[in-house]
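Running low. Got one?
___
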Amino acid sequence: MIELLKDYPYLYETHLHTSQVSRCARCTGAEMARAAKEAGYTGIFVTDHHWGGNTAVDKSLPWDKWAEAFAAGYRDAKQCGDEIGLDVFFGWESGFKGTEFLIYGLSPEWMKEHPELRSPVDEIDDPDFNMTPEKQYPLIHEAGGMVIHAHPFREEFYIPEIRLYPEYVDGVEGINATHSNPKSQSHNDPEYDTKAIAYAHEHSLPITAGSDIHSTDLFDGGVAFKRRITSGRDYCDAILSGEDYVLTNGVQWFDKKGKPLS
């Protein structure tokens, strides 16, 4: 079980993938939900890889069918969460040529109404596939959602270069547990988080934390609050309003500015 801080008993995993939708994930939404409940989480955000990322959803499908299939992992987790008392919220991880963003606060129904969310991919030459970070931000933000730059300084073969968009995000994932949790088997380099936190400070952007988890071998990372979050939109409001919260990579706690707590 996760050792929660007394004053911040409501912990949320904010970066989680399911095998129904993310090609790199190994467990279903229901499996992830049950593991999170057993570990002591109050809730999870299902943030599967979207169009420009490592999605498992067939891109030849019409957009409405694609969007419906994209929500499969979330719906599986939500059904299980409702049965076992775990809050499950919808989100996604959008991709732009290796640069990724976590989107919160919107619904599968909203997604289905916005086929312009398709982002450029090398094998498709079509002006409708044009969702750049500059276009993504106003679309998501004006709908009441939130854009968080995921692991902005990670270096991997699928990330050809570090791209930063401080004017087109609402915050930064400053702590990603795969970078510093000893249970992680990939992306291991705490310096990625150190750089992300410094970047957030430079641009006065809120900092979040998540595990970037792909299986039920949980890292126990996330964001913890003094109160229970009621919805994805409520989470956005809490982060953007400056509400009090703490961050964890599963082995250490930090204040919302990324400073380690003694």
In short: The beta strands are 10-16, 43-49, 87-96, 99-104, 146-149, 171-176, 207-210, 222-225, 245-248, 253-255.
